[in-house]
What we know:
By secondary structure, this protein is an alpha/beta fold. The protein has helices at residues 27-30, 32-43, 74-87, 93-99, 103-110, 115-122, 126-137, 148-151, 156-169, 189-194, 211-221, 233-241, 255-258, 262-270, 328-338, 348-358, 441-446, 456-461, and strands at 19-23, 48-52, 65-67, 100-101, 142-146, 180-182, 247-251, 274-279, 291-294, 303-306, 311-315, 375-376, 400-401, 420-425, 451-454, 469-473, 478-485, 493-497, 525-531.
Amino acid sequence: MFGSGAMTNSIGDLGYADVTIIIGSNTSETHPVISMEIIKAVKAGKKKLIVIDPRNIMMADFAEVSLNQRPGTDVAVLSGMMHWIIKKGLYDREFVETRTEGFKELKKVVAAYTPAHVEKISGVPAAKIKKAAELYAGAARANILYAMGITQHVTGTDNVRSVANLASLTGNLGIPGGGVNPLRGQNNVQGACDMGALPNVYTGYQKVADEGVRHKMEAAWGVELPEAPGLVSTEMVRKRSEGGVRAMYIMGENPMVSDPDLNHAGEVLKNLEFLVVQDIFLTETAELADVVLPGLTFAEKDGTFTNTERRVQRVRRAVEGPGEAREDWRITCDIATAMGYPMEYGHVSEIKAEICSLTPSYTGISWERIEEKGIQWPCPTPEHPGTPILHVGQCARGKAKFMPVEFKEPAEKPDRQYPLVLTTGRILTHFHTGSMTRRCKALDELVPRAEAEFSPHDAKRYRIKDGDMVELTTRRGSIDVTATVTEKANPGVVFMPFHFAESAANVLTGGALDPVAKTPEYKVSAVKVKKKPSK
Length: 535
């Protein structure tokens, strides 16, 4: 429904909500500024919070209702809430009748997801599902925040569709304090997607398969462009295994820590005929490269970032870069020119002008207009003020379309051989693959190593104590890691951060992908544990 996966509302707008649902987001650790605004509103009595997460994350301490679902059962939980909202007549009838289509199909699908049935699937008590549904549907303004906790599944697309269905069912679209708001995991992920860093779209989500769009881009760039979309990164790894990809150019990514089924991915990268890595540090991936191209950090270059609320903002050089490091765009231009396609810009503002000329949602966001303050897309003309809230009055497609989905099991379920579920994520102290934060002495001293979280129940079952070394094993491989026993973890679920190359959680994760988004299932892996002997 929301195409680009962008926040429908603004960060400042979150405070208008009477109720907020957080699902699949450890907000206090991954988006601490946003989490503080939510916590302040809850403490002030201005907001009630619903948290849906397999772990007892800090945000649950402030929740009116906290639902600990089994990893991979989000669709069932959300369908159970919609079932109860429809059964009790709590949905927004006027909104559903005038601004949506497909309600009968949704009603038919969720009819089977009674709270009692969902309890059997998810482990969430039926009473809590009912309470969460009534609280959310009863609010004048309610919003939903989500992150990779619901997208990194083989059913990631279904999870997001379910969230959108819930918001539409209750009329929480196009209003202050409403909306569906994905929280981006890195500072310019939204901007990278907006600029076409996806294999099936050009800038502004203009489809590669659209003949008119393709001809527009061909005329602008003076080249013939392919009709078919390309591959996502996980597909590239698979194609290399089949002999189809011979070389890779990796920019600002560290797949030797972040890719799933890391033993397999590592072998693929090591056996490429040619590997180029462009980055700001010599990462684990860069160490394998035939050529390393040193780029600049955000503080060493001019340009724009687009943040999680769709706001395009200026980035200004504050310091000079070290050694031979150069702006990424200059490196790209020189390589293109050397390969026979002259690519020349005198200044980054000229690239911004090209973006505006080819991207309808960015047309009015000129370099000059964002000198003092950023502007939120869509901004279709130079006079347009930008769009703080999407879908006001009507959705981009006209009527919002309900897209009901059935619950599907994760690619792996625990069994007798692998009786626990491993889920991975981030912690406050470190960022992504640790290529920056683990080079910061103060941060690395705070959390110098990976720790696997076990519930007291599981710790007792496997005779594990705080600080013990354990071996975690899945069907992909094994790693040694320090155990910590905590009430954050629920029985049957082990949590590990993926920031640490020496205890790489992604050695354990599988290669199963969402069939639509091609996102790996990082959040559910069947795992077993063995306590290591004391030295």
